[in-house]
Specification:
By secondary structure, this protein is an alpha/beta fold. Helix content is 44%, strand content 20%. It binds NADP nicotinamide-adenine-dinucleotide phosphate and magnesium ion (MG).
Length: 412
Amino acid sequence: MRKIFMSNPIVEIDGDEMARIMWHWVKEKLIEPFIELKVEYYDLYIKVRDKTNDRITVEAAEAIKRVGIGVKCATITPNAERVKEYNLKKEWRSPNATIREILDGTIFRAPILVKNIVPAVRFWKKPIVVARHAFGDIYSGTGIRFDDVGEAEIVYRSKSGREIRVRIGAFSGPGVLQAYYNIDKSIESFARAVFKYALMNSLNVWFAAKETISKVYDARFKEIFQEIFDREFKESFSERGLKYEYYLIDDAYARAMRSEGGFVWAAKNYDGDVLSDMLAAAYSGSLAMMTSELLSPEGHYMAEAAHGTVQRHYYRYLRGEKTSTNPTAIIFAWSRALRKRGERDGLDALIKFTEVLEEAVKKTIEVDRIVTQDIAKVMEGQPSLIATTEEFIESVRKNLEHLYQHKLKNCK
Ligand code: NAP
Ligand code: MG
């Protein structure tokens, strides 16, 4: 079989535990036999991060800036338990947070739809993609618990010493209060990444907040979204027949329930946190059927699975058991990153291959009804086989070979 050519590399970022095991199976069985793979490889295995004092994570992010496209395996975000387990020097930061920060990127999470998993909302025919603004809000907020009658005000002091004071309120007894912030530059980057992603994928954009109540904070988000849209994206959106719409967030929830999906929903940090878990559960109930893409305002791109390292399955694997861990999102991360490479370099065969790869996975689940355990629990009808990870990949491989022979023969 002649392998598909790549003119430029993508950045491959390796990870931990069961995700890492599946990563290599997918690469060996579904990618390398078909593609003359060109990668810049960065190993974010927890021990390597520890050894390099996490330098490797920064290097991987810098590489994506240079190369433009990356694909990432799930990685452990160390906590106290992990420090003990892997004998680490410290609780290193979440690699995803580091990479996102360096690229100034926005995360887009989208469900992978298959016919035999019916969304909880029966109107949904297309994915709803959540774009979460991963900056500010309560995640960097501060609170006070007070224990007496009293009052509070909020003070902003500029670098030059000018002060703005606003009264929060007077309190009749013990209670709590909270303050949080955002900055224009971050909201602007977020808006740009959202509109850019929507153009790339031909999707309408919704942004939802509650500016009628949050008259300063949410109102500023709304204003910035509108300004960026009008100034930088309005024309290309109208050329493509796409729309940007702002909704009050309660209205957006109600509309989404009656929609058929097929749009990007941009959400503030906390809203996006809640929304993305709700949508994941409503679309399929399995994180293994969800992709996660990072896009920066400059167009740097990274694809990964939405799930983590699947720790519990890994311990079973280490005991020599066969696990039924679902590699679908990992396969899709590879196909999305390679497709982006194909699109940017004008490589039709590579683009076609990624379509065929995704089709092979869907055929395995929909037609062969060969599924992993997480899918068996939520699918319509009976599976023909509840497969181990390796069996599942083997079935995808068979479908892929068949489709490859039929659909890629004449592609250069
Ligand atoms: P997780 O790895 O996503 O797994 C949570 C549970 O979801 C699993 O125990 C499993 O349920 C199910 N699951 C997830 N992926 C699956 C798949 N591919 N196939 C079948 N079932 C799947 O989340 P976690 O256990 O909270 O986190 C584990 C580690 O991953 C942590 O160290 C965390 O820091 C890291 N993490 C990394 C990323 C990332 O790099 N992007 C994201 C999230 C978490 P059952 O056990 O019930 O089968
Ligand atoms: Mg959440």
